Amino acid sequence: MTDEATAFVPGHVTGFFSAHPHEDPARAGSRGAGIALSHGVRVTVRRADDGTEADSETTLNGESVAMPPVGGVRERLGVPGAAVDAETPLPLGSGFGVSGAMALGTAYAANAVFDRRLSENALVAAAHCAEVEAGTGLGDVVGQARGGLPIRLEPGAPDHGAMDGVPARPRVEYLAFGEVSTEEVLSGDTAALTRAGERALADLRERPTPDRLVALSRRFAREAELTTDRVESVVANVRAAGGDAAMAMLGDTAFAFGTALSDAGYDPVVCDVHRAGSGLVSE
Amino acid sequence: MTDEATAFVPGHVTGFFSAHPHEDPARAGSRGAGIALSHGVRVTVRRADDGTEADSETTLNGESVAMPPVGGVRERLGVPGAAVDAETPLPLGSGFGVSGAMALGTAYAANAVFDRRLSENALVAAAHCAEVEAGTGLGDVVGQARGGLPIRLEPGAPDHGAMDGVPARPRVEYLAFGEVSTEEVLSGDTAALTRAGERALADLRERPTPDRLVALSRRFAREAELTTDRVESVVANVRAAGGDAAMAMLGDTAFAFGTALSDAGYDPVVCDVHRAGSGLVSE
User: Fold this and answer.
1) B213 touching chain A per CB within 8 A
2) ipTM score
3) How far is A170 from chain B (nearest CA, A)?
4) Chain B residue at shortest CA distance from A147
5) Cβ-contact B146, B277 below 8 angstroms
6) Dihedral of CA A65/A66/A72/A75: which sign?
7) Which residue of A9, A178, A249, B57 is most buried, as measured by CB atoms within 10 A?
C-alpha cells in the first residue's frame, strides 16, 4: 500500500487497422499494426483527500479534463477516490493513443495505490474495456501494453486477443497537424476500412519489416479514404525525396521511420520505439 | 541486410513451474512464474567468413562452447553460417536461462543479419522449440521474450501458450553458488513437481504480487524436494532476519526482492527487473 504511484505508458500510433465491434468489450477491438513511442504519458494516481468520487479529479498537463476511459477504469477497479494526474508531450486527438495511455496508466498506478492485486492482463483488460466503451479507441491499449512495433493479430483484451510484433526498433519521426475524431470514424460505416485493414495485415505478416509497415499504412489510409490533405502533401514530398511516410490512425499526423521526414526538408518531432510496454515507474 | 547485429536478452529466473511435455516442441513447455533480470546476455551474430557451417562457431564470454539450442535456432532459421558471440555476467547452469537467452538472441540477431523477415512470435517460437528439443529448458524463452515478472499461464510457443505478468518492478538480489542439471531434473519423474507447480500458479493468480511470488517459489522448491543445502541455509537466515527468499529453478542459486539478502548479512549480486523483454540493440 502506498499513497501515490506513477506509471509510464508509451504513445501508440496505429498505421492500419480493421474494426471488430462486439457487445462484450473484452472481445471487441481491432486487428492492425502500429508503433509504441518513447514519447508517452506519465500517469500519477493518489488517493483523493476525502476518498470520494466528487474529489477525484483527472488532469492532463495540469488542466482538468473529461476523460471517460479514465472514469471507466476507476469504476472497473472499484477506486472512485483515485485522483489522476497525467503529463505528456503528445497532442490529444491526433492519433497517439493518449486516452488509452491515460486509461492504462490509471489502471497500473491505481492497482498499486489501492492494493487491488490484479495481474497485468487484468489491468490491460480494464483499460481496454473502458476505452472501447468510451468509443475513444479499439487497439491502442493492447499495443501500449506490449511496446515495440505491435501487430494485433486478433482483437480484444489479453484473454481473447492475440499479438505479434515486428522485430525492429527504428528511429521515429512525426509531424502532428491536428485532430481527427476517432468516435466519428468508428461510428460510421467501417466495411471498406476493415477490408483494407485485413489486406494490409495479411501483407505485413508475410514480411514483417518497418519499411513494409509504413508502405502498407500509406496504402491503407488511401484505400480507406482517411488521408487528410496535409498528410497527403507530406507523403507526396517524402516519396519524391526517395522516402516513405504514412498517416497516424486517427489524427492529422504524418509518421515515418529513420530520417524520411527530415530528408524531405521537414522539421519533425523525433523519438524512438518504446521497447518496454507499460508499467509502474515509482510507487 | 547487415553484416552484424546484436540482441539483448534478459536473464530469467524461474521461481516455480510445472512441466508439460508434448511431442510438438511448440506445444511443449511449462506453466509457472519468474523474473526477467536486467542482467542478461548480449548476442552478436555475423556471417561466418566462408558462410559454411564448419566456420560458424559459438562463443560465450570469448570461449568456444557447445550450445545445442543455438545450433537448433541456426537450423530452424536456415542460417548454418551464423557465427554467434555471446557475452554475459550470468553463470551458466545456475538457473538464469543463459541457454534460452543465447537461443533467443541468436534468433533476433540472425533474423536481421540474414534478412529472414520473421515476426517476433516466429523468432520466439524458433528459440523455444530449439531449447525444448535440446532439453535445456521449458519456459525461459517465453519469459525472456516478455520481460517483467512473467507468468506462464499455458505452456508453449506464442501461438499455443499464454502469458500474464505481476505488475511490479522490484529490485532483485541473488547469490549463485553453482550448477544443478536441468536435463537431469526434467528427464526424471516430474509428477510431484508438477502438482506443486500447479498449486503455486493457482495461488499466485489469486494475488499476483512480488512477495507472494517469492513465498510460493520457496514452498514449491520444498514440496518438489529441489532445495539445495546452501539455498536452504540462506532461506532460513533470511527468514530469521524477517525477509523471504527462494531458489532459482534450476540452479544452486538463491534470489529475493528488495534488500532481503543484504538485510540477512549476505553480499548478493544486485540487479533490476528487466522491463523490455528481448530485442535488437544494434544492427
Assistant:
1) no
2) 0.93
3) 10
4) B276
5) yes
6) positive
7) A9
